[in-house]
Each structure stands twice: as C-alpha cells, then as structure tokens.
Design a protein that fits this description.
This protein is mainly beta. Helix content is 0%, strand content 45%. It has strands spanning 12-15, 24-31, 36-39, 44-49, 59-64, 67-68, 72-75, 81-82, 84-88, 95-99, 105-106. It has a six-stranded antiparallel sheet, with no helix packed on it. Strands 9-10-11 form a three-stranded antiparallel sheet, with no helix packed on it. It has a two-stranded antiparallel ribbon with strand order 4-5.
C-alpha cells in the first residue's frame, strides 16, 4: 500500500487521541510507508535490555514507540493543530502542503 502521508520528518505534531493526548513533539522517524510515526517524547514505553557493550549493566530504558498517523495532527506556524491540503505552487509549479485552517504554506 503506497499511501502518501502529509506528515514528514521534522514536522511539529500534536496527539489528538490516546494515552498521550495533548502532547506535542517533533517527528523523528516515519516508518511503514507513512502509517506509523515516532514522535519525540510521545508514547514512551519501558524496554528491558540485556547487558551489552553500549549499556554494560542492562536494565530498563525508556524509549519512544510508534504511534499511528491517524492519531496525530500537524501544527502550523501559528501553533494550532490543522488539517493539510496540497496545491500547486504558482512560482515553481510544484505540489506544496498548506494549512487548511490558516491557508499558509507549510515547509
């Protein structure tokens, strides 16, 4: 399934549903063809690790788990959650993302 997602690495997003509802963060990684997204500081899980060269004692570490794209909304320049649209840029004739709430282009 090749679904084109509107959320890219580096975007600021807000969680709209689930245990982390209301949390904001920066997108670190987009996986599974844009279906699952890892957001900085959101959906933290405890992972048990064996001792290794990187962590000689082992133990429990906290890390971000993926969250489904449907549970996220992009934050536009004014700081409000918004839906995303696509339109042709008048200068370069390329498809650009824009905020449906404010109408501004999102880089």
């Amino acid at each position: 399934m090749n679904k084109k997602t509107n959320i890219k690495k580096g975007d600021n997003v807000v969680v709209i549903t689930g245990d982390s509802k209301g949390s904001r963060g920066k997108v670190l990684f987009v996986e599974d063809e844009g279906i699952k997204i890892i957001v900085e500081g959101v959906n933290m899980v405890s992972k048990h690790t064996k001792p290794n060269a990187e962590n000689p004692k082992g133990g429990i570490i906290k890390k971000e788990a993926p969250i489904h794209v449907s549970n996220l909304k992009l934050v536009d320049g004014s700081g409000n959650p918004t839906r995303i649209g696509r339109k042709k840029d008048s200068k370069s004739n390329k498809s650009v993302r824009y905020s449906k709430k404010s109408g501004e282009v999102i880089k």
